[in-house]
Design a protein that fits this description.
There is one protein chain. The chain is of the alpha/beta class. The chain folds into two domains: about 290 residues, 3-Layer(aba) Sandwich (Aminopeptidase), CATH 3.40.630; about 110 residues, Alpha-Beta Plaits (2-Layer Sandwich), CATH 3.30.70. The strands form four sheets. The protein has an eight-stranded mixed sheet, with helices on one face. Strands 10-12-8-13 form a four-stranded antiparallel sheet, with helices on one face. Strand 1 and strand 2 form a beta hairpin. Helix 3 packs across helix 8, helix 5 packs antiparallel against helix 6 and helix 7 crosses helix 8. The longest helix is centred in the C-terminal third of the chain and has 21 residues.
Length: about 400
């Protein structure tokens, strides 16, 4: 979508007094940067081209980005001395990886050039927003107008469980950080607006892989063997119901299956079956109990049908829980730029986001960044091949982050 599609939304009067608006020349550069990323998507831990492009632009601005030990992703400091006893660092986080799905958009000049790879979750927008904010804040720092030091975190492998955030944290990227903020594209919200919520804004998300085994046999005599197809069918239907009754229903603990395989012939009871799915949970305390609850339910149903079960429960990410003070900082920043009318409440999503791992260490908040062109009637969603973003959202994200840095208390 072209830069000219930006929504004509009036800024609040206080925005004129707050420095750090995005110059048109830089905005045009950022749109081109985002389109380049969109054309060259890279999967988690393979983002070498993306990392190099970010690094080159930050170095051009006179900054000293540091590539992460994993070889992809990087961090970059603007102003201050994180260990010098001054104000705590405000971190801006972006995720840089793409998804293993084809780009199905047509007649779009910047559609993916890589087969079966697409930025279908908006990470190219997140990356461009943090890059743009970093460039604007660098200029403000040189003018002596940046009240707190800022760290840019460009994180790899958000889409790979349990997420690349763990390696970023392990590398020391949160040392000296007092607060951390991020945005996530939301195709249900108009460009020019953001969605905020105090407390949980995403769900926990784990992966579940199950194997069931039995001796097999003839379908004429299922009573002499383990009726494995029936056993796997009962696991599929009974386990979600059992799990839902073993925690407070408000916790939203849910098992959903995405794959099931068993058998090769209509008259043979198979010896092996496989299932895979996800476990999602709205409540962080229930999420901590989820592995024991889910595994026990699977074993219970499998044993009832005399099937041997093997369970691989892959821990994913906890919910993103927005800290109230940081959430209000983002609200104040958006009001200063665009007015209170352009901040809306948002619901808790069942999607997972590894930004949650940062919040296990420092307070922070994530805002939903509107990317739907105002008036558009096409219903788009994340993780679909036709996903795209109104690029005016880049300007909104940059100005949101720059305002948050300028309004951030020094103590």
């Amino acid at each position: 979508m072209s830069p000219e599609s930006e929504a004509d939304l009036p800024a609040d009067a206080t925005a004129d007094a707050l420095p750090g608006t995005l110059p048109e020349e830089l905005y045009a550069e950022l749109v081109a940067f985002r389109r380049d990323l969109h054309m060259h998507p890279e999967l988690g831990n393979q983002e070498f081209r993306t990392t190099a492009a970010i690094k080159e632009r930050l170095e051009k601005a006179g900054l000293a980005p540091r590539v992460l030990p994993t070889g992809t992703g990087l961090v970059c400091d603007i102003g201050g001395d994180p260990g010098g006893g001054g104000p705590a660092v405000l971190a801006l986080r972006a995720d840089i990886d793409a998804l293993p799905i084809p780009d199905t958009k047509s007649e779009i000049p910047y559609r993916s050039t890589v087969p079966d790879r697409a930025h279908a979750c908006g990470h190219d927008v997140h990356t461009t927003v943090v890059l743009g904010a970093g460039l604007v804040l660098t200029d403000l720092h040189r003018q002596g107008l940046l009240p707190v030091p800022v760290r840019l975190i460009f994180q790899p492998a958000e889409e790979v469980l349990p997420g690349g955030a763990a390696e970023v944290i392990k590398s020391g990227a949160l040392e000296g950080v007092g607060r951390i903020v991020a945005v996530h594209c939301d195709p249900r919200v108009d460009a020019g607006r953001i969605g905020l919520r105090q407390g949980p804004i995403t769900s926990a998300c784990d992966r579940l892989e199950v194997s069931l085994d039995g001796p097999g046999g003839h379908t004429a005599r299922p009573h002499l063997t383990t009726d494995l197809v029936t056993a796997v069918a009962r696991v599929v239907t009974d386990v979600p119901a059992l799990v839902g009754r073993r925690v407070d229903t408000r916790a939203g603990l849910a098992v959903t299956w995405g794959r099931i395989e068993s058998g090769h012939a209509p008259n043979v009871v198979p010896q092996h079956a496989e299932l895979a799915g996800t476990v999602r949970c709205l409540d962080i305390n229930a999420w901590r109990q989820a592995p024991d609850i889910v595994v026990a339910a699977i074993d219970e149903v499998a044993n009832l049908h005399k099937a041997k079960s093997e369970i691989n429960y892959v821990r994913g990410v906890p919910p993103v829980v927005n800290e109230p003070v940081v959430t209000e900082l983002l609200r104040d920043a958006m009001i200063a730029r665009r007015g209170a009318a352009n901040v809306e409440d948002t619901e808790q999503s069942l999607g997972g986001e590894d930004f949650s791992w940062y919040l296990e260490h420092v307070p922070g908040a994530m805002a939903r960044l509107g990317v739907r062109t105002p008036g558009e009637r096409t219903v788009r969603d994340l993780h679909q091949g036709d996903f795209d973003a109104d690029e005016s959202a880049i300007r909104v994200g940059v100005e949101l982050f720059t305002a948050a840095a300028l309004l951030h208390p020094t103590r």
